[in-house]
Task: inverse folding
């Protein structure tokens, strides 16, 4: 089976787990630069999947590293936001926000859970790709100055320096592919 098929298979097998992570994050939203519980939760999730090369940055951000074969060959960064908005959730769902006046109305719960899912898959397949993956869990995207600028000032784009960075935006009405 080629690596693309392995990724698809692992993605399917982890779907329920990542959905549960997303719902947990949705229930416990935190405002920009106050993502303390979120940060701890992400650290715990990374630890549980075997990613120990991680550190906090910009107070509530996290940068973690997955080294594949020949880790110095090329580094690619993957980025996801973690903060929520000051909005009262009125949805009637079992995973509704438990923090009054704070809601993941912007999709950052999906960014974080998706990045954790990707981390789980790539860590499992790290002996099948070359280079290094840098995971960036960014705080404070919804506030100026944003978490990205603070993380950059603190060196998130160094040691190792990524050749490129990929992020995502949640737009479920757009076809995949």
Result:
């Amino acid at each position: 089976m080629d690596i693309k098929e392995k990724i698809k298979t692992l993605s399917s097998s982890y779907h329920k787990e990542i959905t549960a992570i997303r719902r947990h994050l949705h229930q416990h939203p935190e405002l920009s630069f106050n993502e303390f519980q979120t940060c701890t939760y992400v650290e715990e999730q990374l630890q549980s999947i075997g990613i120990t090369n991680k550190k906090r940055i910009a107070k509530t951000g996290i940068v973690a590293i997955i080294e594949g074969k020949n880790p110095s060959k090329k580094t690619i960064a993957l980025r996801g936001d973690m903060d929520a908005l000051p909005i009262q959730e009125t949805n009637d769902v079992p995973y509704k926000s438990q923090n009054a006046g704070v809601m993941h109305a912007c999709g950052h719960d999906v960014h974080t859970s998706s990045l954790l899912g990707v981390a789980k898959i790539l860590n499992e397949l790290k002996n099948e790709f070359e280079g290094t993956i840098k995971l960036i869990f960014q705080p404070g995207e919804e506030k100026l100055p944003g978490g990205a600028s603070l993380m950059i000032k603190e060196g998130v784009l160094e040691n190792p320096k990524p050749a490129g960075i990929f992020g995502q935006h949640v737009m479920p009405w757009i076809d995949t592919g």
Remarks:
- Residues 3-91+99-166 form a domain with the Aminopeptidase fold (CATH 3.40.630.10).
- The chain has a mean pLDDT of 94.
- The first helix runs from residue 3 to 27.
- The first strand starts at residue 54 and ends at 57.
